[in-house]
């Protein structure tokens, strides 16, 4: 096979690969945005619960000190 045929095969392979991969970057970005959002929702609830528990402990301690 001549060099021209190899070059043509390479161009066609790259062109068809690019056509099949169209929109792949956008789908990847959408996946990571959804993943980050879900992780924030999962972990933020636990953090908020810990913060509210700590705040409750502080108010309990302050009330005990005020009674004394």
**Percent helix:** over 70%
Distance between the termini: 97 Å
Task: Please indicate the count of domains.
Answer: 1
Query: Largest beta sheet, briefly?
Result: none
Quaternary form? single chain
Number of helices: 2
Keywords: Signal
Biased composition (Basic and acidic residues): 55-68
Signal peptide: 1-21
Region (Disordered): 46-68
Summarize this, please?
Residues 1-21 form the signal peptide. The chain has 68 residues and is an all-alpha fold.
Give an account of the 3D structure.
With 68 residues, this protein is an all-alpha fold. It has one domain (3-67). Helix content is 91%, strand content 0%. It is built from two helices and no strands. It has helices at 3-20, 24-67. It is rod-shaped and about 95 Å long. The model has no long low-confidence stretch (mean pLDDT 76).
Topology (elements, then pairings):
Layout: H1 3-20, H2 24-67
């Amino acid at each position: 096979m001549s060099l021209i045929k190899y070059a043509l095969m390479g161009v066609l392979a790259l062109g068809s690969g690019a056509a099949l991969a169209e929109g792949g970057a956008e789908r990847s970005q959408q996946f990571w945005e959804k993943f980050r959002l879900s992780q924030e929702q999962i972990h933020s609830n636990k953090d908020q619960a810990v913060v509210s528990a700590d705040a409750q402990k502080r108010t309990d301690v302050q009330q005990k000190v005020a009674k004394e």
